[in-house]
Amino acid sequence: MKIQQNHTSDINLKIKRRRWTNVGAIYLILLLFSVLFMGTFLFGALSSLKDDPSSWPPTLKTEQLSPKNWIGAYILARQGGGGGFFGELKSGHEVSFQVTYKYPMGIKIVPPQVIVPKRFKGSGRAALELDREFVADFVKIIPVEEIGRISVRDGNQVSYKIDIINPSQKDFDELPLDLLVPYKVDFLSATLSPNRIERLGRVQSWNNLVSGVIPYIFHNHFRVFNENYSRTTGRRLFTTWIFNSFFISIIKVLTTLMFASMAGYALARLKFYGKNYLFVLILFSMMIPGQVTFISNYLVLRDGIFGLTKLFGGGSLLNTFTGLIISGLVGASAVFIMKQFFEGLPKEMEESARIDGASTYQIFSKIMLPLAKPALGALTILTFQGVWNEFFWPLVIITSPMDKFTLTIGLLSFKDTYASGTFDWGPILAGAIISALPIIILFIVFQRYFVEGASFSGIKG
């Protein structure tokens, strides 16, 4: 009897080990797939923080994520008179900066040449601000002070202190800096790591010593908002594009939820002539790609919906948000999802409500819609994601001015602003990461409804 119990316990132990092995293998496979699908996004997010995302070989390391640089950016911003997280150079304030170099044997030890350059804001439209005031015309550079020297095996390590004062009555939001040293002198460290080292290591450049921690980390993201603005209206284009995309996406989500829920309930529960033929027509429309019908849809909007808008004093619906919204009030796939979900709900609830004297509208609004929250949540995610990322149709409808662009079309214009000639990929990557954030947040918020809607939409009672 004891031998049999030991044999049974050994079998149970083997079963448990095999079960945990299978679970571990499944989690490992899921982890590999998550790295495969999310790896490019994470690499793009980290690269959007870099000063030079196209540096070779590619690496995940970036100075913007160094705690040492966070501390340096905080200290310098506070010295400039601003906050540590969002800094500036205020009137009467002095910024003290330290840097260390290695001078090889035979190289004369001379202090670095300090230059506050007149630098335009990036390569975007803000670079056209030819009438702006430069901080270089107002600040005063104190003579460089040597604060330390250490002899090493093959040379000397020398530390310098650089003080810059703003004696004017003006405040500035940036303080660029260039340091020029002799050839073969190696840069070792500084209060804040330089953004660029150029001319065979002779020049170290900082975009802004007093930026503060947040603008230092998200430098390219701030450039996206600050460097792109409309020359006619003066509005920031990237902010306008985000607002346009949110406006169109929210309107289409609301219209889709309203029309798809009503149509899905009618096809699932109501009895009327031609219901099956109508459902077949909806399924058939789901099989036709948008590229096949976009010319006819374009002509309809061009003529103002067969000329009907002209009867009310309107004209063409091209290049308007109205035309973009009307052309996509509800999709066939949304109606299909709601129909499948309503068919999975038990009919006994409707029958009980009808016995109590409820009308069809009351049954739909007070009983069926509350039960359809999982499907509506899934539909919200799918619709918002589709409209937010839609590119082809808005590109056809919206042509000018740039204030009317959606975010996807606006990101396309970055190709001419940053990529042509300058190969400035930082703002392009930053804009792409920002455009992905609303979708990620929406999925996190509605994740439970999405999973439930996906599981229930194909079930019939």
Question: How would you describe what is shown here?
Answer:
By secondary structure, this protein is an alpha+beta fold. It folds into 3 domains: 1-47; 63-213, no CATH class; 237-456, MetI-like (MetI-like fold). The protein is built from 16 helices and 9 strands. The protein has helices spanning 2-47, 67-79, 213-217, 219-226, 237-269, 275-286, 290-302, 321-326, 332-343, 348-355, 360-371, 373-388, 392-397, 407-419, 425-445, 447-456, and strands spanning 94-104, 113-115, 140-141, 145-152, 155-165, 177-180, 186-190, 196-198, 203-206. The strands form 2 sheets. Strands 1, 3, 4, 5 and 7 form a 5-stranded antiparallel β-sheet that branches. Strand 8 (196-198) and strand 9 form a beta hairpin. Helix 4 (219-226) crosses helix 15 (425-445), helix 9 packs antiparallel against helix 12 and helix 14 runs antiparallel to helix 15 (425-445). It is elongated, with a radius of gyration of 31 Å. Mean pLDDT is 86; it is low at 456-461.
Report a brief summary of the structure.
With 461 residues, the protein is of the alpha+beta class.
